[in-house]
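Instructor's aside before we start: the two examples that follow are unrelated to each other. I chose them only because their records fit on one page, so don't look for a connection. First example below.
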Amino acid sequence: MKIYKISSNNDFDLLCSEIKPHNIGKGIMKKKSNLNYFYIKNIKRSAINILKQDALSVGAELISPKDSVLGGSEIENAVLIANDKQISLLIKKEAMQDFGLKILSNFLKIKFKKPKIPQIMGVLNFNNDSFNPFSRTKLKDCIKKSENLINSGADFLDIGAVSSRPGSKYIGSKAEFERIKPVIDELYKHKIYEQTKLSLDSFDEICLRYALDHGFCFINDISGNTALCELAKEYNAYYCLMNMIGSPENMQDNVKDCDILGVVDEFFETKLAQIKDYDKIILDVGIGFGKTANDNMKLIKNLEHFLHFGFDLLIGASRKSLINAYFPSKVEDRLAGSLFLHQKAFENGAKIIRTHDVYEHAQMFKLNQIYSKITI
């Protein structure tokens, strides 16, 4: 007999393909192989005590304040730890309880489905003030750079003509259109839209409509203007809804840590209620847009939460000052930090990774795919 301690990140199905258990047994064991953590805010002590007993009865755990055992109407926080099998049992138990536990039961029913393979969105900016000089592109280099990014592994190209870096001011619709029209025309002339999906990083309807008329299929809107989703519907295009606190001009002024998961969650809930019957929506939590470094890290680490809305997630942390906050560095020296943050974002539920460094990300994710298929 030989015994090996193997990674808990091994693919359960691949392990079973080697061991060959009975299919019924495999289904039962798979529900026990995945551990879930749920942070429950503002729950009454009376509810904590009920949930604690229910959790223990199915083999799960509830981390709760030591004084919650005294009961009462005081509001506390708690963490539920349970595998998929235990979750299925708790759904039934809490559906029969009061004190708000029916809400918990409904939330536990949600399937938080993470993507298996990421998609990469390369960035090209046609202005002179984007925070990353490497992304700045001249019209004469448009096709060459586009094809290089596509050949490096870009599933999308995100084209922009206006900077949204902290402190930037919008140049206006007319000026933006004058900048972006020649770029759109050049991409359309060379049929780049046949090689990859084209996205326009804009919130101006005139620019967006022109792009959609010329091969673009993705509206990347930082403004949160859900009226632009109606434009996306008209063209059967993707609409990316991003959270920004403030505007680019003032978003990083006096930022403070907050309940960032709650703030972004409420934003998406409110905005999505304004959109009816459309499924080509992408959600972006807006890394660096009016948030502290700590809040940005919280969003990436707990990104899985936002899968409860049922839409794909996009993350763009490429070479941003978040990296500099923890490891002082210039923009050109933040590749390693970008790769780390984007790998974690993918592991936590992001499907689309927006980056200035397509080749390096394609290489990383290819190795990640191979790694995930390795067992013993």
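Example two begins here.
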Amino acid sequence: MDVASAEESNVKSASVGNYLAKHMREYALLFALIAIMAFFQIMTDGTLLRAINITNLFLQNSYIIVMALGMLVVIVAGHIDLSVGSVMGFVGAFAAVMIVNWGMPVSLTIFVCLVMGAIIGAAQGYWVAYWKIPSFIVTLAGMLVFRGLSLWLLEGRSVGPFPKSFQLLSTGFVPDIFGVDKPNVTALLLGFIAVLAIIWVGLRARARNKAYGIEDEPTSFFIARNIVVSGALLFVVYKLATFRGLPNVLMTMTILTVVYAFLTENTTLGRRIYALGGNQKAAKLSGIKTERLTFLAFANMGMLAALAGLIFAARLNTATPKAGFAVELDVIAAVFIGGASMSGGVGKIVGAVVGAFIMGVMNNGMSIMGIGIDYQQVIKGLVLLSAVIFDVYNKQKQG
């Protein structure tokens, strides 16, 4: 009996060890975010996790997260887009001209700008997909073109302010339908629903994997992960509920994250994008229309860059010629830190969002501590390099 128990224990240990080895990146990312938040919470004397600062974290990083969703798709497909910052700034400038200078309605402006972003992305995707011009070159040209167009459109000056209805894109909050206000009962209710949804989706996935005989996450890890995630989510929601409630941009980010996570992980289109990035020639030979997928990936990226431009302009309440400058670097860094592979075919939407939050917490924490922008850039660069080295090391170890 003792021997049998020992053998069973060894099998369980081996399975846990194998699972950790295969999913080291995902758990390392989660532990890294927790460790970074704990570090800055201590170093800032509790300022980091105050309600007002958590709200600012979401407001400050919303446009990065929105673009990271599209960038993840582009990078998984085996390409890159260096123009997103410039497209974001140009669309924000065009929105300012439409609303402030031409007096156009806000709803029409938002629609036109989103369509414009999709067209810009599609135009760049056309050259990449059908003319086989490297995406690095095409989007580098786009970065310069739209940076220049922003300066031309704004004539080198800022344009604003925007009406309140437009500002709600970024600075608005979900009202409490129960009228309690503090704490915001609507926010608390939505938080509990989100936790239940996460647990339900996890249990459903485990049941499906078990039915198909797929190796699944050990029960202990599943329980621990859900406790950590649910606890963190409820803590953040409670903090927000005691302040001003859920920001509109948080709801936008959440909806987009759920939609893109579903599309990439549970649809044929998503699987084809991963196949495209994993091996383009094999994907084409298997009947996948690789050119069309690449085209759609860039069109989608352009639309999300446009949405980010609207959110950023609404937050600043003005459009400036320098809006979006070097933002593409933060977006790309967030995706790679979040587990995407340089060679394509690897990466998850949730990882990109976590990567963006890691960058956001670092920026926010270092700013509170009074660390200069020069040192901030150095530290962010080293974190990005470490993430890429970790990715390469894992690949070599598995190979």
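The longest helix spans residues 185-211.
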